[in-house]
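Supplementary notes for students who missed Thursday's class. We covered one full example, reproduced here. Read the sequence, then the structure, then the short commentary at the end.
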Amino acid sequence: MPAEYVLSNVWIGLGIAIALFVIFYGVGYMSSRKTTSDEDFYAAGFAIGPVTNGLGMAATWASLATFLGVIALIMRLQVPFVYLWIQWAISIPLLTLLYGTSLRRMKAFTPGTFIRERYGKGSTVVTVLWMILIMIMYALGQMIGLGRAFELLFGVPYDIALVVAGLATVGYITMGGMYGASYNAAFQMVVMTLAMIVPMGAIMKAMGSSGWWFPPLAYGDMVPSMLEAIPGFFDMKYDFRWYFALIPAFTLGPIALPHLAMKVFTSSSVKSARWAVVWFSLFLGLLFSGTYVVGFAGNYFTATTGRIIEKADQTLLILNVFYNPTLVAAFVMGGALAAGLSTIGGNLMAIAGLVGSDLLGIMAPTMDSKKKIKWGYAALAIGGVLAILLAFQPPKFLVTSILWAFGLLATTVTPAILLGVWWKEANKLALMVSSVVCGTIFIVISPHVIPSICIGKGLPAALGM
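Structure (token representation):
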């Protein structure tokens, strides 16, 4: 028997969504009053404290996929995917250790600021264009997810859901700049964590776990029951090559994600940036552990109840509809919305910084601060509207797995940043040639652009890695 996500009272879901957006717009409006310079707009005046920044980093990192796609992959791949997913969280600490604090000292707005200082204008254009492409891919995936979430939550056609969700999102992000993005992301992380973990306590209790009081760690008492229900759940089903293909892209690609780096740069000091990573690890660890619980519980649910979850990306939502009251199920969807919104906020701020600060800094170096802010607002809004328009009929090239985009980033931008910081011999010509050649090769041998050409086999090949 299929299990589906259907709210018995759509007005409860609508009320939660409206309440969240009222808070987001309130934070955005208050933040807009603090934005008076390009430092304020692009880097929140370099004034964000470690706890707020840690929450914001975690929220920007934990996209809508954390509530939907990642759980679907755990449902399909079971424990082996958890081993891969852990690599993902390593990227922020590595980002901070390998170059984040160095760029914070120079008060960079984006990684492109460092590329220009280190390699020159031509290199900046090459790397910034790669980063903008990847940010558009990232934002597009989140925008499609938001449209689907609104469609699911309110039972309206996708196109209408997309326009409403997209414009409402772009509005508050554009209004607030980096101050608004930082404070809203911190609040969104709190909502996401509560929505992921607290309702799972009730679900795990109903399933018979004595550790229901803290689902992220205390569901281990159900392991014997899981082994009885699904004997191969914990097996490492793939050989070494599978992990070797996926892990480097999971770790190296995100190191150069501009929207994550920009969170480090907003810190009030280098010491604050380091402490923000500690808080990031704690907050993201809680959320990711909650994601593992949902994957565990979803597999157990299908094995013991005989119900089929046909849409695996709705597992968390379906479990809450099955076990919890409508209000709780609607709040969980609110948490998923918050996850998508926080990431889109980071993506659009990155596009604004890459265009308004980096590209404009090359094309119009003498432009005054107020004009740069106006261009930043324009780039932010245009990037958001472009993501909405693309999401109506998204090109296949741009809706490939975001994991593929990480691999692309690992081949085009990560080496330029890391070698620029740590190796004196790195130079402009080498950066431009290697970035263009390696990025082109990566695109050609992936299955997403020219399907007839594909290197490798199985899941790594399908993901383009």
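Commentary. DSSP finds 21 helices and no strands in the chain. The CA atoms of residues 295 and 407 lie 25 Å apart. If anything here is unclear, bring it to office hours.
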